[in-house]
Amino acid sequence: MKQNNQRSDFEIISNWINEESKVLDLGCGDGSLLNFLEIQKKITGFGIEKDKDNWLLSLKNNIDVIQMDLEAGLSGFEDNSFDVVILSKTIQSMHNIEAIMKEMHRVGREVIVTFPNFGYWRDRIQILMGHMPISDELPYQWFNTPNIHLCTVKDFEKFCSHQKIKVLDRVVVTKNLSINFCPNLLGALALYRLIKK
Amino acid sequence: MQEKNSVGIVKEKIFKSEESLPLDCGEKLEEYELVYETYGTLNSKKNNAVLVCHALSGNHHLAGLYTKKDKYPGWWDNLIGPGKPLDTKKFFVIGVNNLGGSHGSTGPKSINPKTKKSWGSKFPILTVNDWVNSQKKLISHLGIKKLKAVIGGSLGGMQALQWSIQFPDCLSHTVVIAAAANLTAQNIAFNEVARQSILTDPDFNKGDYYEKKLVPKRGLRLARMLGHITYLSNDVMKVKFGRKTKTKGYQYSFSPEFEVESYLNYQADKFVDEFDANTYIRMTKALDYFDPAKNNIKNLSQIFKKIKSEFLVISFTSDWRFSPDRSKEIVKALLDNNIKVSYAEIDAASGHDAFLMSNDHYHSILKNYFMKIFNTK
Asked: Which of A148, B104, B136, B221 fits a disulfide with B35 by CB distance 3.0 to 4.6 angstroms?
């Protein structure tokens, strides 16, 4: 889950967000992304976080944070009430992906989704060796992982086209390097900027 | 016993207003007194004041003791004090007994200056709106233009919310705990049963019982017992009392034998000694009438347009009188208006009463929120 230090994915997300936007971060963790965006882009940010300890960390980080379960939808939010809705490294732990994607596009004009790419070669090798992958982006053991819906870059893009979601931008990175060649094989983390078609 | 982080021995003060107060019911109070307490020190800029609004059975005695012999401290002593979540080393905390109350502020027991007798049945029914207006007079009297925060639970939370609507420029933060933007039919129904138990007590005498030296104890006891049941959750009652009895085997009598019965009777007896029936029925009316969105919760966003303060909203999972869903309505209307708000739904078993309890996570939230408030200008 989210770390405190500034990360290259924060920079990429920040580049996709206009100054003074209204941003909703779903599963905001300790609020460090919103904090980063508040400093970089002077956004008005709200976070949603279910876990009480993370919720408190967000509050301590000066983030306005709503405690609720994303699986229940975003019924507390009006249509198009945010410029951008972010789901950063959270989608892989959600039950109903179709529902949350629909809700994000209802509430936000633009949507940013980031996730660990399960097609990354290091993950593939571990599976070839007969093990579930463990990496920087997927630091859990098979028995304690919250990640139930892992996908690859290819899978996600197929899903988007099926759901009539248009990809405005895509960046795939490994560590801090942007991967343009064979991203589904060489990229560890995928970041997408999306709108509804 | 005075514990380490207590505000210590406190003394109540009286604010006497010579100015009349127009009321929602159409009447006006020509003059009135508010009894209040303060803890901590008002800074030279007078910008560190926090007003604490009390709930149905509360009063102005928030923290500390009147004498060293006091058995119990003020009702929110676990929250308020030096080093406590609402830190009196940082904030100037104000507790005020609402008008119509039974702890010293002008109320049904007081002498009506026109008749020179107790007001009794003639004391008007006040609203949350009226209370907030009277509290504003006290705040101005103390020389405070803008409160750092207004905080309250239950009916106190409603007052805090009303403050943010009515005096948007006079507070920076609003903390609404275990409250709602109006009461549900179920809540009004409970209040009506409580009122009926008082109104039909022969000793109530239509509210004029002071001169006759009567006390409608039966009615008030029943009202309190009913209230107590609804403030707790089924789970917490199960854990606290279960089916435990005072003696082994059944007594085949009607005197209390289950522990839950003893508890309710004890609470009821304690309550009649410190609370006035006329106040109780009026407080429940204020609860019933509170409805800034005028019977359409969808209007709430519209009403909130004027709000300038930031918000912290808290609910408790097991609170079925003011459920988390009701708090979420407030949060939604705030979000609709881009108002800065944090919302916590605390996992607590104690029901509505949880807002008075010392739950680590709950207090940690309030401590951090008040720290944030203190550190921002």
From this structure: B104
